[in-house]
Amino acid sequence: MVGEISYVIVLSLASLIVLFLMTKLMGYRQMSQMSLFDYINGITIGSIAAEMATNLEDYHRPLAAMIVYALAAVCLSLLSGKSVKARRFLNGKPLILLHNDILYEENLKKSKVDLNEFLEQCRVSGYFDISQLQTVILEGNGRFSFLPKSSGRPATPNDLALTPEQEDLTAVLILDGHIMEDNLKHAGKEKKWLCAQLNAQGITDAEHVLLATCDLNNKLTAFPKNSGTHAKDLLS
């Protein structure tokens, strides 16, 4: 009896160590807001770890299964990092639920969000009147993002008798070195204009850009690749 208890304790500690190492290998998304695949994968690996801790006869199979699931998560993470289409398929695509006082019913149905839940999310975020909102987006991780109208912001431009221009969504023109053709077209821009803007910022090729956005004032904001490799120095 004592031997079995000791064996369970050892297996439990071993499963915790393996689970910790697998989590470190798969990345910190396992501890923060997870995608649908991360959520399912995390639950599965946790269940396997529990089985490994209580399986007195054969712990090799649960251990092998944990490693397979972890490696699958790493491989899919690398794939989504290199392919925009794979990233959208695995992590989901943002959906606009409200924009310019238009509530998009089809997107609400597609995201399985009813009006009660939509209004609840607005209230939880401090917006009891949706007419104060310019845009509401359901992100791929299931969270809601809110863009309030300029006239209702905490800076109180109304109190200062100001009429600021309404901000709008910025168009993502380059993502991971890939030019987003549809977004470029919807923004009314051409590749020639985009290349000229990049050259003005000292960037010779779109492949060298991690992210580039364009606002309503035609201002291009570009973030080159490998430009933030020493971010940890800011926290030291």
Descriptive key words:
4-stranded antiparallel beta sheet; 45% helix; 236 residues; single chain; alpha+beta
Set out the fold topology:
Blueprint: H1 2-26, H2 36-54, H3 60-82, H4 84-91, E1 95-99, E2 102-103, H5 105-110, H6 115-124, E3 133-138, E4 144-148, E5 171-175, E6 178-179, H7 181-186, H8 191-200, E7 209-214, E8 220-224
Antiparallel strand pairs: 1-2, 1-3, 3-4, 5-6, 5-7, 7-8
Helix pairs in contact: 1-2, 1-3, 2-3, 3-4
Describe this structure in words.
The protein is an alpha+beta fold and 236 residues long. Helix content is 45%, strand content 15%. The strands form 2 sheets. A 4-stranded antiparallel β-sheet has the order 2-1-3-4. A 4-stranded antiparallel β-sheet has the order 6-5-7-8. Helix 2 runs antiparallel to helix 3 (60-82).
Average of the residue pLDDT scores: 76
Main β-sheet description: 4 strands, antiparallel
State the shape: extended
Question: How many angstroms does the end-to-end distance come to?
Answer: 51 Å
Computed structural class? alpha+beta
As a whole number of angstroms, the C-alpha radius of gyration is 24 Å
**Count of DSSP strands:** 8
Strand order of the largest sheet: 2-1-3-4
SSE pattern: HHHHEEHHEEEEHHEE
Please report which band the strand proportion falls in: under 5%, 5-15%, 15-25%, 25-35%, 35-45% or over 45%.
Answer: 15-25%
Structure annotation, total helices: 8
pLDDT < 50 stretches = none
Percent of residues in helices: 40-55%
